[in-house]
C-alpha cells in the first residue's frame, strides 16, 4: 500500500482552547523564570540570602510563590501530553509509525534543549520534555486504565523522592553546622554570580554556569523527568478519554475538576504558606521536606484549576473573544519560549544591558508583562502572515522530512 503524505496540522484543525491555555501558561512560566533571569535565585534559595528587602518586594515574592511557582510548568507539560495524543491520532489516521515519526520530533526538541541549557540558560525545560517524551512513547498503545495506574505510581515515587532527598539535605545541613562535612558557600556564590552575570562576557558567563549552576541543576533530573512524564501521562489520559475532542460533551466532568481543584488547591496552598512562613513549626528535620512536598502537590492541583477555568471560560463566547488574544502566542509556543530567554539574557546579562542583580521582584513582574505584551503583538503579526512560527516551521520540516 502506498504511504500517504502526512501534512502538519492546518489552522482549521487547531483547537483555540488549547492555544489560549498554552499562551496563558507561557505568561506564567515567564513570571516564574524572571526570578532566575534577574538574580541568582538558585543560590539565594540555598543560602537564605536576600537581595531586596522591603514590604513591596516581599509581597511580590509571595504573589509569585502562591499563584505561579509550580503551576504553569505543570500546565505547559499537561498540554504537551495532550499534544502527543493529537499527534498520534493524526499519524494513526495516515497509517504511519508513531514511534518513528515522534522520535524524530523529540530528537529536534532534544537538540534545542541541549543548546538552550548549555549555551544560554540553566532553567531550560525542553531537555526534560525530550527525555520524558521518549518514555511517553512506551504508553502510546496503553489503555486508559493502565495510563492512570502508571501516572499514580510515578507521581507517588516523585513525591517520595522529593520528600526523601529534602529530608536528607536537611540532615546534611545539620551535620555541616557541626563542622563535620565541608559544603559550598552559597552566600559567596550569590555575590560572585552577580558580578559575573552583570559584567561578564558570553564565555565568562558560560564558564560560570557550567561550573556552578549546571552541577546543581542536572542531578535534579532524577526527579524532574519522572515528574514531567507523570504530567504527560495525565494529558494523554485526558486525550484518550475523548475530552479534548469533545469538550462541550464533557462540561460536567470539567466542572467537577474545576470545583475540586479549587477547594483542594486552596486548602493545600494555605497549609503550604503557613508552613513556609513558619507560622506553624514542625520538627526541623521534617520542615523543609513538608514544604517541598506541599509545593509540589499544591502546584499540581492549582494547575488543574487554571486549566479547567480557562477551558470553561473558552466555552463562553464573550470570554472566548477576550481570551483569543493569547491564542497566537500559544500557536508559536516553542518560538516564544526560547524568545523569552533571548530577550531576558540580553536585558540582564553582561553581554547585553547588564541589569542582572539590579531588578527587584516587583519590577520583575512589570518587566514580565511588558515582554509578554510584546510577544502578543509579535505573535499576532506573525500568525496573520504565516501558518507557523519560525521554530515551529523548522520543527515540522525536520519531523515530516521525507514522509
Give descriptors for this structure.
403 residues, mainly alpha, 17 helices, globular, disordered N terminus
In short:
Helix content is 75%, strand content 0%. The chain has 403 residues and is mainly alpha-helical.
Explain what the structure shows.
The chain has one domain (11-398). α4 (72-94) packs across α10 and α7 runs antiparallel to α12 (284-313). The protein is globular. The protein has helices at 16-38, 41-47, 55-67, 72-94, 98-120, 126-136, 144-177, 186-199, 202-217, 221-240, 251-276, 284-313, 317-323, 327-331, 333-348, 361-383, 390-400. It is built from 17 helices and no strands. It has 403 residues and is mainly α. The model is unreliable at 1-14 (pLDDT under 50).
The general outline is globular
Mean pLDDT: 91
What's the gyration radius in Å?
22 Å
Number of domains as seen in the coordinates: 1
Helix and strand composition category: mainly alpha
Helix content: over 70%
Number of strands: 0
Proportion of strand residues: under 5%
Helix-strand pattern: HHHHHHHHHHHHHHHHH
> How many separate helices?
17
Largest sheet: none
Cα separation of the termini: 14 Å
- List low-pLDDT spans: 1-14
